[in-house]
Amino acid sequence: MDSKSQDPIGYSEAEQAHEVEQHQPSVLWLALLGLGVVTLILGGLAFWYAGSVRQMEVAVMQERAARATLQARAGAEAVRADAAQTAAQASATQAAEAQTTSAVYSRIVRANQLANNALLALATRPQAALLLAIESIRVQRESNEAPLPEAVQRLRSLLGATGGIPLSTSQEATTALAVSQDARWVAAGDEAGTIRLWDLQDVTAPPFLLQGHSGPVWDLVFVPQDDAFYSAGDDGSLRRWPLPGAADALSAGLLQQAQGEPIYVLALSPDGRRLASGSADGTVRLWRIEQLQVSPLVLRGHSADVNTLAFSPDGKLLASAGNDSDIRLWDSQTGELRARLVAHSGFVNLVVFSPDGAWLASGGSNGQVHLWPVTELAAQNEAEPGAGSTTLRSIPLLGHELAVYALRFSPDSSRLASADDNGAVRLWDLTQPEESLLLGRHQGNVRGLAFVQGESGPALVSAGYDGQVRLWDYSNPDAVENIVRGHDAAINLLASPASSASAVLTKLIVTAGYDHSLRVWRTDSPFSEPEQVLPAGAAVADVAVAPDGAQLASYMADSPTIQLWDVQSGAPGLRLTGGAAVSALTYSGRGQTLWAGGRDGSVSLWDTQSGDLLRQFRAGDNAVTALSISPDGAILAGGSEDGLIYLWDNAATLLYTLSGHTGAVTGLAFAPDGKMLTSAGLGAGTLRLWDAATGHERQVLQGPELGLLDVAIQPQGPWLVGAGGDGAVWVWNADALAFEPAQLRRHRNEVNAVNFSADGLVLASAGADAAVYLWSTANPSAEPYALVGHRSSVNGVTFAPDGAWVATASADGTIRRWSLSLDKLLAEACRTAGRNFTLEEWTQYFPTGVSRYRKTCPDLPGP
User: Fold this and answer.
1) Cβ neighbour number for residue 614 with a 10 Å cutoff
2) Between 132 and 100, where is the model more confident?
3) DSSP structure string for 719-730
4) What is the pLDDT of residue 823?
């Protein structure tokens, strides 16, 4: 055994050192090997890490690329979504616009349809026509849209064809109607026995309802001396009704107890002291108003119903007639029979005395009309007092075919008007009664006639079953009658303050119709539009308006008189007369004075408040044909018949004389700033522009060869307008005078006058064709509004300073004021209609159903 293994403890240090030396390379190698391994490991780790980093970078780059791709896709989708949304919004906008356009168009169509329906309804139902015209405008106004010009024109046309102030009644037919002599009270009795009393001082107030009769009321009569009115009824009673304000106001007094015989007619003596009644039993009773408690005088002789009574103008005779064909004349004091007049072969419907008492006219059931010379009876009475009854020969008036229920004498007793159930209205000249003049025909029975004051003079009014009120200019047989509508049914009664034998022309009548309404008419201004008619009595050459709009001034051709008018009331004011015939007018800037040009070449200045002539001087030897004053009142321009123009200062000192026109100067107008004067003339037909400060001519514009008859300058605008003798309105643009003028053509004859509203938005033209047109300066190519009503050449036109109305002057003898406010026209349409649609009318014109019903006129009663 080896000693070293047996004794390790004894192993020497040298041996150990030697042993170590022998083993040291192995350890180094191991260390190196370990280092290599570590290096390899670290290199592998580094390589792995670098690869991982690269992989991570690639992944990041891929993720970023993917994210960028997603973002790009998302952006593209967003763009597509935005585009789609924009397209959808555009489509929705287009759809909304299309819907709006469709709705607008639908309203236009509906408005036009209603306007046309209104025109169609005029002939038979004028009240419904007015309501339709209102609705045609309301359709668009409720959507804040401008109404169709056609609809507005329809409304104007309807207001120019209808009229009357409506007074509503019961559902019973009106059987009796009367107007007090002072034109304040209207009484109407109906089939049920009710009497209604209106105070015309307030037509909007409800009527007084008076009960007493148990059946139809057949007649009514006002007794001024008694401050009461009387009624007669089918129940045979005669009642007295004191008027409001009397001590026993509206408390009925029974004069005659009901006796079973109807009382058909009443008549009041001219002195108001005696009342006559006619009954179905053939008796006539005479009452003394001062002694009502005393039994009446009973006149017997008729063998059938007494239907008509009339006192002679002197009150001495009472005429009675009825179903026995006889006419009896009684002494109204004694009751003695003075004459029995026999000529009719049927019922006698009416007897009427002439205002002068010379004639008695009678109308019968078979169309007979007889004229009786009652003056012969008076002569016989003077020759043989108390001689008793006698007979008279009549003059038969031939021409009527059917029953005559209307007769009236003219106030001067020179004519007799008659009408029959065939609608014929005839006029008889009592100096030659053999022939009559057929004025025209209603389309049905005529139930009333009255001689009245018309628009331009005396007229005859008739009313009939066709629902029409007609006004005849009987002094001019060639004139066409005025037809005015208001009732929706037949007119069965007409009454006026003047009696049938009155020598006074009235301006007021009242009609009753089967539409359960009464209407009060102003015969001198019967239509709802124009707003006012001023009767000048003869052809009006021109009209001017004061700067405050409160006064009008007019003159007639070849007359030295200027007539002033109060605009509010329409009443004539001062008459200014200075000697020479007036040929031109213009108010001063403040309106307290009025300049007038004369045919003798004079110029006069008038105080319009006092009527004093303040100044007068001569311009020359020729007529002053045009006047205009500058806006500041510093310069007065006057045009002459010889073509000269004169400029004076406010002290009447002549500044310049302007020459250039080869014919009469027909129009002058200052520009709003007063720097330019425009003149129009005949001859070469030129429009000339002048420097107002120096009198130098600025420019000459060529107009029609037939000349210009007037000129106007647009306030706040560039238009210069001339009234062409060729029938055109010539329009120059002051900002482009090098261009040819425009021509507005609607008139059939020469244009006599032109004028602008104060805001310059409306141009009015008036012509010899009796037409007046209102042109929109914002759209001159649009159809102008027509103001229809004048019956002859319109010679002058002027606007209210505030633009509320326009006034026109005509050769028909009238000045008319036309409202320019649409709201006012609509209010007037409601007032004239006097009601709202019935449910039946609503469903006819508005098929949406009754549940959608609304009041067209909120302040008026509805169903």
Assistant:
1) 12
2) 132
3) EEEEEETTSEEE
4) 96
